Amino acid sequence: MYEKFYKVLFNSIPEAVFITDSDLNLLKANSRAFTIFDISKSAKTLLEATFSVELENVAKKAFEKNKACESEIIIFKGSKQYFFDVSVTPLNNTYLIIILNDITRIKKLEKVRKDFAANVSHELRTPIQLIKGFSETLLEQKPEPHKVTYALEIIQKNAITMENLTSDLLTLVSLEDDDNPRLEMNQTNIYGLLEEAIQAVEPKRSDKNINIELSCDRELCSRLYGPFIIQALINLLDNAIKYSPKSSSVKVSAEITENTLIIKVKDRGKGIPAEFQERIFERFFRVDKSRGRDTGSTGLGLSIVRHICLLHNGNVQLISHTKEGSCFIIKIPA
After folding, report:
1. Residue 127, CB half-sphere, CA atoms under 13 Å: how many?
2. Cβ 143 vs Cβ 167: under 8 Å
3. Cα 147 vs. chain centroid, distance in angstroms?
4. Number of helices and strands in the chain (H, E)
């Protein structure tokens, strides 16, 4: 009875556990170890079970010093790398208990956090420097009136850039926060959402004389978060207008097919090269970095669109060909 209890207890440990002798011959491994390392029945040693020389060295070090050792190691499985906190404890100069805690997800989150902080700092550096530089010019010198106007325009433009970046960051954080209270999804008229989004980008559309063609049944309805969908549509339309030539057209359409709401925003711009298409929904990613900043882009718009789709258990796709334009497709369960 006790043997069965200990076996169940051993296999219920969430960390991978190995028990070896002093020569690192494998005596026992729990279920978690078999799952993580896909251990073959022919594996006789710790090295054969994990294919990790680094882990083997930590185990040898603990045995030689006859005291517990802790370390952080990386183990490669195929093309992927996994991070582990390792604890090795010798027993009576005869056995070793090796415990591996998978911290891969924590490491990835740390990297995301560091990259995010670095990207935000990078995005803010330029507008802050420009605002600081031109404001110092206004305070320390007595420039001519036309130079004052120019300096104030630069300050205003970069202040707007910082305001947009802050707004997009807050939106993104709100979407990613699972604890953030949400309004309930409501049955919503899709045509009305599309019209509202189109009206929101009217000044920019008018400046470039772009025609927005709308194709949608006026009675089309679906259950969703209306304000979020409007935000996603505004982001897509804003991009379509920015990167389309003057006097061209943007097509917006919506339909329900096979119980899926499909919304498309198609432009006649220069398109997105194939090598960038997988990264287009990443935070702060821009195909043309200099042009993106010139047009006031924060680099977060498409990332926000993606998160809004995920919030609806849907997704967003891109079909784009160089010099033929881009089509963004939102798919949400209807």
Report:
1. 22
2. no
3. 42
4. 11, 12
Closest CA to 234 of 250, 217, 216: 250
Q: Which whole-number Å values give the CA distances from 154 to 129, 163, 299, in the listed order?
A: 11, 14, 20
Question: Does the 108-181 domain belong in CATH 1.10.287.130?
Answer: yes
pTM over the 0.70 mark:
no
Mode of pairing for the β-strands spanning 325-333 and 16-21: unpaired
Give every strand in the sheet of 26-29, ordered side by side: 26-29, 16-21, 95-102, 80-91, 69-77
Tokens of 44: 């006789």
CATH of 182-334, one of 3.90.950.10, 2.60.40.10, 3.30.565.10, 3.90.650.10: 3.30.565.10
Task: Enumerate the CATH 1.10.287.130 domain ranges in the chain, comma separated.
Answer: 108-181
Task: Indicate the pairing of strand 95-102 with strand 16-21.
Answer: antiparallel
Q: What is the pLDDT along the chain (334 residues), one digit of tens a residue?
A: 556 776 778 888 889 999 999 999 999 999 999 988 888 888 999 999 998 999 999 999 999 888 899 999 998 887 788 999 999 999 888 899 999 999 998 888 888 777 777 777 877 888 888 888 888 888 877 778 878 888 888 888 888 888 878 887 777 777 776 666 666 788 999 999 999 999 999 999 999 999 999 999 999 999 998 989 999 999 999 999 998 999 999 999 999 999 999 999 999 988 888 888 888 888 887 776 545 555 556 788 899 999 999 989 999 999 998 888 999 999 999 8
Centre a 10 Å sphere on the Cβ of residue 16 and count the other Cβ atoms it contains: 24
Listed in order, the ranges of the chain carrying CATH 3.30.450.20 are 2-102
**Domain 2-102: CATH superfamily, name plus number:** PAS domain (3.30.450.20)
